[in-house]
# Entry
Amino acid sequence: MLWKRRSEPAPAAEAPAAVPPAGPVARLPVTNDGRNPLSLILEPWASEIWLEPGEKVTVITVGSADRARPWSGTRAPDEPFELQYCADMLVVWANGSLTTVEDASGNELFRW
# Structure
């Protein structure tokens, strides 16, 4: 694995809820089925995660419950995600009010 977690997971007694039930939740599973590491860029934060071949993560975003359109969407209004694929790179725009990334075991890696 080419990237590291920002911090160690909290003990089970202190672990935060995976995703608060504040609004609709959208999940985007991402798997690197290629032979080379894949750069996963999360926008608008410009955070980069490197996925080794065969590695899987899930990008989760929570929409706003108090709006008629829960997803802010930029180019595609009211969509939870926008994707752009380039050679060895996948750019994900998460359009919710909260975004997390989990590994294949469900451990939270990042939260914005």
Notes: The chain has a mean pLDDT of 80. The beta strands are 25-31, 38-43, 47-51, 56-62, 81-86, 89-94, 98-103, 108-111.
